[in-house]
Write a structure and sequence with these properties.
192 residues, mainly beta, five-stranded mixed β-sheet, 16 strands, elongated
C-alpha cells in the first residue's frame, strides 16, 4: 500500500523475483473516510488536530516526524493506534503533555503501535509519530478513540486540597489518571 496526497496517474516499476523489471500505469483514487495528515506538521505547534474516531493516513519520508494534537472537551481515556501501510520498520509513537514532557512512549511494534492516556479537558496533548530506523519513506495510518464515560481524574489534582473525589461503584472505588511527567502527582479522595 502507498499513501498518495492527491489523486491522479502514477507510473509504478515492478520487479519480479528472478525476472526483469517492467512498468505499469496505475490510477490513484482518494478513499473516502480516510483523511490525510496536514503538512507541515513537523513541529508540535503545527500538529494536525485529531478527534474522537478520526483516522488519518500519513507518510514519513526519511528523517521526518509527524505531530497530531488532541484536545478533549471532557476528561477522556484516549487510545491512539498506528498501523503501518508500508514497510516493516516499526513506528515510534510518543505522547507529549501540555507542559511539553514526553510521558508515554510504548515500545515500537512491527505493525501496530498503541498509546493510551487520560486527557484532561481543554488541554492540548501531542502525539508524535516517527520511524528512526527507516531506510525509505513509510506510509501509516493513525486512529484515535476517546472514552468520556469513565471515572477519570480531574486536573489539577496535584495536592490533597484539590484531589479528585472517588465515588463507590458497588464496593469498589474506581478511577483512572495519567502522570504526565516527573513533577506531576495525582491525588484522589474517598469519603466513607
Amino acid at each position: 500500500p502507498y499513501v498518495a496526497l492527491e489523486p491522479g496517474p502514477r507510473v509504478v516499476q515492478v520487479v519480479a523475483l528472478g525476472g526483469a523489471p517492467f512498468t505499469a500505469d496505475v490510477s490513484v483514487d482518494v478513499t473516502s473516510g480516510l483523511e490525510l495528515e496536514l503538512e507541515p506538521n513537523n513541529r508540535i505547534a503545527d500538529g494536525t488536530p485529531i478527534r474522537d474516531g478520526d483516522t488519518f493516513a500519513g507518510t514519513l519520508p526519511l528523517g521526518d516526524v509527524d505531530h497530531f494534537t488532541i484536545n478533549s472537551a471532557n476528561p477522556a481515556f484516549v487510545d491512539v493506534f498506528t498501523s503501518l501501510l508500508s514497510s516493516d520498520s516499526p513506528l515510534t509513537i510518543e505522547v507529549i503533555s501540555p507542559s511539553g514532557e514526553v510521558f508515554e512512549r510504548p515500545p515500537a511494534a512491527a505493525a501496530v503501535s498503541r498509546a493510551s492516556f487520560v486527557a484532561a479537558p481543554g488541554q492540548d496533548y501531542t502525539v508524535r509519530i516517527s520511524n528512526p530506523n527507516a531506510t525509505r519513506e513509510v506510509s501509516y495510518s493513525i486512529n484515535a478513540q476517546f472514552d468520556e464515560m469513565g471515572a477519570y481524574e480531574s486536573e489539577p489534582n496535584n495536592a490533597s486540597a484539590n484531589a479528585t473525589a472517588l465515588t463507590a461503584d458497588a464496593d469498589d472505588f474506581v478511577s483512572a489518571g495519567t502522570v504526565t511527567g516527573i513533577t506531576d502527582e495525582d491525588w484522589f479522595s474517598i469519603t466513607l
